[in-house]
Amino acid sequence: MNASVLPTAKATVFVVDDEVPLLDLAVAILGPVGCVVKTFSDPEQALAAFLDARPVVLLTDYAMGRMNGMDLIRECRRLNPGQKVILISGTVDGRIFADSPVKPDMFLAKPYHAQELIGCVRKLWPDERKILSRRCGRWQFNLTMKKILLRIGIIILLLAVVGGLVAGLFLGNLIKVGMNTVAPKITQTPFTVDSVSVSLLTGSAGVNGLVIGNPEGFKTAHAINVGKAAVRVAPFSVLSEKIIIKSVEVRDAEITFEGNPFGANNLKKIMDNVNAVAGGTSKPATNAPATAGAKKPAKKLEVDDFLIAGAKVHVSLIGMGGKELTLPLPPIHLTDLGKGAAGITPAELIQDVLGEVTTATLKAVGSAVTDLGKGAAEAAKSAGQAVGEGVSKISKSLGGLFGK
Predict the structure, then answer these.
(1) Please, what's the b/e burial string for 18-27 (b: 16 or more CB within 10 A of its CB; e: otherwise)?
(2) What angle do CA 279, 207, 157 make, to 5 degrees?
(3) Mean pLDDT calculated for residue range 166-194
């Protein structure tokens, strides 16, 4: 090979790509095998340095903004007609240069393996074939060991992060902020969560101090108060597009009902707000967005088991003069929410769960009101009979008094 092109055993290789991590990867692969790797994220900068550096091989990505890879190849071949070139791309294939008068020597599709990249360079670097062959065994061993050590390091790091308290607190705080930000837009009421604890190692989580406030116009402090909820999650699903929640268990929730069970009330108002956001009575499998007009779909959820047990309803009815009732709520058990590929949005999950809570509460309150009505009717009837008997006795007494 021309000495001006390959002045030393360690010849220069240009790598041009607008993705910096891929530039670093090329250095890690080609550096140990005897290449002096010069990287460029801007093809115009690579072209400016081309004549001075005289690279043995030019490796260039295709899609890079104003100047693509084929444009760069044409300019470099104009300056050095014998320039060896490898075109690399994950968006196009060899057809992109099929009709071009200037073609790369080789095409490499992304993603590629380290040995594929080394093999392409070897084929375009013939004078160094013997050197590379002698070092190939050692390079392969070193690369293999580096891969193994890198993977072990990643696993150890991942376990440390997953099991570490710092990671758990960070993720818990992230979820807390998300709930406190998104949920009020769905319920259109105050919505607060005190804390969220998460362990990715065990897949367990806890939600503490969840309070759903009342809509405007209602006097009671809140609508729903959950002291603590226990959650089990498929650990690494939190990093995917669909979070899989194995179970949610809510114990001893406090529900405050204010209004008319057969008309307007606080739970019905919140439910109307949620339906407006979640899309009316749409089913979870419809893949509807969490908010109208959202550009990016909400993160999807799947909840395999949702249990609410031991809940109590504090009833504040219109027309009772401030009198309150406390009623037990039967257990609410939901399963297979968001099962399937589509999943459900957070808005749809709230819609399903709050819908069941509202229905169960209205049944309990309606039944209690009916019982109260029956009791009042019986009392009124008894009072009427007592009055009638008293009048009869008085009449008889008066008759006797006047000799009738």
Answers:
(1) eeeebbebbb
(2) 105
(3) 77
Question: For residue 243, which of 273, 205, 193, 275 has the smallest C-alpha distance?
Answer: 205
Give whole-number Cα distances, 97 to 14, 17, 88, 101, in Å.
20, 18, 12, 8
Q: What is the phi/psi pair of residue 345, to 5°?
A: -85, 165
Domains of the chain, by residue range, sit at 12-162, 167-377
Report the percent of the chain where pLDDT is more than 70.
Answer: 72
Q: Report how far residue 396's alpha carbon sits from residue 200's, in angstroms, rounded to the nearest whole number.
A: 86
- Give whole-number Cα distances, 208 to 226, 248, 301, 311, 313, in Å: 7, 13, 20, 16, 20
d(CA 345, CA 286): 10
How far is the C-alpha of 364 from the C-alpha of 126, rounded, in Å? 86
Question: d(Cα 103, Cα 70) in Å, to the nearest integer?
Answer: 8
The amino acid occupying position 60 is T
Pick the CATH number of 12-162 from 3.30.930.10, 3.40.50.2300, 3.40.50.300, 2.120.10.80: 3.40.50.2300
Give the type of residue at 56: V
Name residue, tokens 């009449």. Answer: 395
For residue 334, give the amino acid letter.
L
Q: Return the SS3 of 188.
A: coil
d(CA 60, CA 302): 43
| Dist. CA 306–CA 38, nearest whole Å | 57
Summarised one tens digit per residue, pLDDT across range 81-105 is: 999 999 998 888 888 898 889 999 9
Say which amino acid occupies 102: V
